[in-house]
Write a structure and sequence with these properties.
By secondary structure, the chain is an alpha/beta fold. It contains 15 helices and 19 strands. The chain folds into 2 domains: 286 residues, no CATH class; 178 residues, fumarase (Alpha-Beta Barrel). The chain is globular, with a radius of gyration of 23 Å.
C-alpha cells in the first residue's frame, strides 16, 4: 500500500505549477526551433523568433512565459491500493497547491478564475478551483499530469458529432480556419474521437499531454489508422498557410495528438482543442516517500536565438500620434512604440460602456483622446519590475465594444492579438484608426518595453483594471490599417497559395 501525505501532494502541485510557468517542455522548444529554421514567411519567422527568445528569457528569469498563466487542469490516475494521510478531499488538497503556487511572492502567477461564471464574475484571487479528472486504476501507483491552459486556446475548443461515414480530416481542415489566431499558433492540436460528447472533449484535452513526436512518425511511417490520421491532419492543416500568430506561413501546427474510445454505432463524436505557444504541462508520480522533485532543464536545450527589431521597424511616438501618421501605416508594417498608452480588457470595456450609456462619462484620469489601448491583463511585478509579463489578449472579444470606443472616446487604435471581425474592420476603416498586434506567447519579452505602469481606474478588477503604461520600443505589427486591410486575411491567403506552389514544384522534381 502507498500512503500519500497531504503536504507532499500540496507541495508537488505548487512546485509543478511554478515549474511549468517558466519552463517550456523540451520537445516544444525543439519543435518551435525547427519551425523557425524552415520558415520562409518573414512575419511568421519574426514571431517565432520572439516566442523562442521569450521562452529562454522566462527560463533564465523564472518568470511566466505568458501573462495568462492558465486554468489548472489535473489528470489523476490513482492506484486502488493508494491511501491518503489527510482529512481533506483530493480537490481541496490540489486547490491548496494551486493557491500556494499562484500567490507565491517570489513568482506570483496571474489569477484568472472568476466565480460565479455568469453575473458578477468575481475573481477568486488565487486561481482556484482547479479542474480535476480522476481515474482509479489497479495497483499502488499515483500518477499526476498537470497543465495550465490559457483562455485563448481554451476558447477555441470545438466539438461535433459526425456521421460514421463522414470525413474527419475534412471536418478538421474546414473547422480550423474558423478558430482564428486567438489560440496563438503554432501549437499542438488535441483530438478526441469516439465515446460520448463529453468523453471526446476530455480525450482531446488529455491528448495534449503527449510529447511532440510527429517528425519521428514521418520518418518511420504510420503503423496504425490513428497514426495515419495524425499525419494526414498535420499535413493538411499546415497547407492552410495560417502560420505563426495567423500571419501566414509554413507552420500552423507542430503536431496532432489523437486519443480514441469505442462509440455508439450511430455516432462519431469528435472533440478538438489546441495548445498555444505557451504550452505548459508536466507529468510525475508520487510514491509516498516525499514530494516530487523537478530538475531544471539545461539552457542548452534552447536555440541560440535572440530577437531584435529589424532595420525596417518604424519608431512611433505615441504622445504625438495623429490620424495622419496612422494613415501612412500599411498592413504588415512593423512598429516600435514609445510613449504612453492605456490598457483595458473585457471587464473594463463593459464598465466603460455602462458609464457612457448612463451619461456619467469616463472615470477621472481616463482619457482615450488620440491614444491607443492595449488589450492586456498583466502579471503582478516582483522585485524591481515595473510590471510582470504583459502579453496581448485576444482582441476579437473586444469587437463588440470597438465602434463605441472609436466613435465616442477619441481612441486612435488598439493593440491585441488575433484577427478582428468584419464589422470591426469596417469600423476601423470608417474612423481611420488602426489595429496592431503584439506576439502572443512573448509576454515576458514584451514586458521589458514597459518602463512605467500605474493603475488609473477600476482597481477592483485586478488584472483587468485600466493601467497607464509608458513604453519604449514596444514591438507590434500593423494588423488592420486605416484602409481596412487585414494581415490575418491577406497573410494566410498568400501563404496557402505559396505552399501549393512549393508542393507542386516538389512533386514535379521527384
Amino acid at each position: 500500500m502507498t500512503l500519500i501525505r497531504e503536504d507532499d501532494l500540496i507541495q508537488s502541485i505548487h512546485d509543478a505549477l511554478q515549474y511549468i510557468s517558466y519552463f517550456h517542455p523540451r520537445d516544444f522548444v525543439r519543435a518551435v526551433a525547427a519551425a523557425w529554421e524552415r520558415e520562409q514567411s518573414p512575419a511568421a519567422k519574426d514571431a517565432l523568433e520572439q516566442i523562442l527568445t521569450n521562452s529562454r528569457m522566462s527560463a533564465e528569469g523564472r518568470r511566466p512565459i505568458c501573462q495568462d498563466t492558465g486554468v489548472v487542469v489535473v489528470f489523476l490516475k490513482i492506484g486502488m491500493n493508494v491511501r491518503f494521510d489527510s482529512n481533506r478531499s483530493l480537490q481541496e488538497m490540489i486547490d491548496e497547491g494551486v493557491h500556494r503556487a499562484y500567490t507565491d511572492p517570489i513568482n506570483p502567477l496571474r489569477a484568472s478564475m472568476v466565480d460565479p461564471p455568469i453575473g458578477e464574475r468575481r475573481n477568486t484571487g488565487d486561481n482556484t478551483p482547479a479542474i480535476v479528472h480522476t481515474e482509479l486504476v489497479p495497483g499502488d501507483r499515483f500518477e499526476i499530469a498537470i497543465a495550465a491552459k490559457g483562455g485563448g486556446s481554451e476558447n477555441k475548443a470545438r466539438f461535433t458529432t459526425l456521421n460514421p461515414s463522414d470525413d474527419l480530416v475534412e471536418w478538421v481542415v474546414r473547422t480550423l480556419p474558423g478558430m482564428g489566431a486567438g489560440w496563438c499558433p503554432p501549437g499542438v492540436l488535441g483530438i478526441g474521437i469516439g465515446g460520448t460528447p463529453e468523453k471526446a472533449l476530455l480525450m482531446a484535452k488529455e491528448a495534449l499531454l503527449s510529447p511532440i513526436d510527429i517528425h519521428e512518425l514521418q520518418q518511420r511511417g504510420p503503423s496504425n489508422p490513428i497514426e495515419e490520421l495524425r499525419l494526414k491532419i498535420h499535413e493538411r492543416v499546415n497547407t492552410l498557410g495560417i502560420g505563426a500568430q495567423g500571419l501566414g506561413g509554413l507552420t500552423t501546427v507542430l503536431d496532432v495528438k489523437i486519443l480514441s474510445y469505442p462509440t455508439h454505432a450511430a455516432s462519431l463524436p469528435v472533440g478538438m482543442i489546441p495548445n498555444c505557444a505557451a504550452t505548459r504541462h508536466l507529468e510525475f508520480e508520487l510514491d509516498g516517500t516525499g514530494p516530487a522533485t523537478f530538475e531544471p532543464p539545461s539552457l542548452d536545450d534552447w536555440p541560440d536565438i535572440h530577437w531584435a527589431p529589424g532595420p525596417e521597424a518604424r519608431r512611433v511616438n505615441l504622445d504625438t500620434l495623429t490620424r495622419e501618421e496612422i494613415a501612412s501605416w500599411q498592413v504588415g508594417d512593423r512598429l516600435l512604440l514609445s510613449g504612453r498608452l492605456l490598457t483595458g480588457r473585457d471587464a473594463a470595456h463593459k464598465r466603460i460602456q455602462q458609464l457612457l450609456e448612463s451619461g456619467q462619462g469616463l472615470p477621472e484620469g481616463v482619457d482615450f483622446t488620440n491614444r491607443l489601448i492595449y488589450y492586456v491583463g498583466p502579471v503582478d511585478p516582483v522585485g524591481d519590475e515595473v510590471v510582470g509579463p504583459a502579453g496581448p489578449t485576444t482582441a476579437t472579444r473586444m469587437d463588440k465594444f470597438t465602434e463605441l470606443m472609436l466613435g465616442q472616446t477619441g481612441l486612435l487604435g488598439m493593440i491585441g492579438k488575433a484577427e478582428r471581425g468584419p464589422e470591426t474592420i469596417e469600423s476601423i476603416r470608417r474612423h481611420k484608426a488602426a489595429y496592431l498586434i503584439a506576439v502572443g506567447g512573448a509576454a515576458y519579452l514584451v514586458s521589458q518595453a514597459v518602463k512605467k505602469a500605474r493603475v488609473v481606474a477600476f482597481e477592483d478588477l485586478g488584472m483587468e483594471a485600466i493601467y497607464e503604461f509608458e513604453v519604449q520600443d514596444m514591438p507590434v505589427t500593423v494588423a488592420v490599417d486605416s484602409h481596412g486591410e487585414s494581415v490575418h486575411q491577406r497573410g494566410p491567403a498568400e501563404w496557402s497559395m505559396r505552399i501549393a506552389e512549393l508542393r507542386h514544384t516538389l512533386h514535379q522534381n521527384r
